[in-house]
């Protein structure tokens, strides 16, 4: 669902700065990373369904979802509007509760994982606080977690550098382009070094050239940080370019139609999009979307 930047979204950004207990010193990194190792399952979803009760009756947003995500994977959710991509990501982030089924994140409930700061969340709109500079936006989770001011400064510097925004820390969000704002919100999500990055169509509102550039940067960032990434998109080329695994979803009710491995290797220049291997996977995703979607239903 397209959720423009709103008070609710800013509130959610604040809610995600909640934490279970103030970790201190050396305790911090083990507290955040948990005990997990490479190749280990970080998200395990079994028979999960979610029904929204609305004034017009129940809406089955997710039905019988089964999904397994390993540490270090880049997993995209793709599908037509209303198929439940955002809802599924919000369940992982503990922003929605499932009606039935089970889910673990880093071996914990989503709530425990949120409180242990297992993930950083990047919204569709950058959700930066307009009255704070870019560095102060990045500092927000660190302030709530009571990082020392030296540690805070170093993390701001490192993460600005990671998203190529060194030198822009003192600017306000409105002084930056849309692409730069999104990079700043990625830096904020990464500031406390979470295991996982949850990204809800972060580049959907940007023009294609900027988007290509950010996709390249995101791949580099992913390779450098080795984070597990969950990424919502409507774009087939974006999903194929970025992912190790593509979850094709279909609507009414929202469900997983197919899970496609995307084994293009770690080295992916933009030109890879013209390669036979890339086009083959893109075709498979398009077919999956077509088969999982009845176009007649959309207009009924
Ligand atoms: N808070 C809510 N209350 C009631 N219904 C909701 C709520 N959030 C989502 N829905 C409904 O659940 C279904 C799935 O919505 P969701 O936003 O997850 O889809 P999506 O695939 O992310 O869509 P889009 O691509 O348009 O962002 C839709 O029918 C939507 O209208």
From TrEMBL:
InterPro entries for the chain: AAA+_ATPase (IPR003593), ABC_transporter-like_ATP-bd (IPR003439), ABC_transporter-like_CS (IPR017871), ABC_transporter_ATP-bind (IPR050166), P-loop_NTPase (IPR027417)
One Gene Ontology molecular-function label: ATP binding
KW Nucleotide-binding (keyword) present: yes
Xref: Pfam families: ABC_tran (PF00005)
Keywords of the record: ATP-binding, Nucleotide-binding, Transport
Compartments reported by the entry: Cell inner membrane
Main location: membrane
Residue intervals of the ABC transporter domain: 45-272
UniProt record similarity statement: Belongs to the ABC transporter superfamily.
Protein name (database record): ABC transporter ATP-binding protein
Organism listed in the record: Paenochrobactrum glaciei
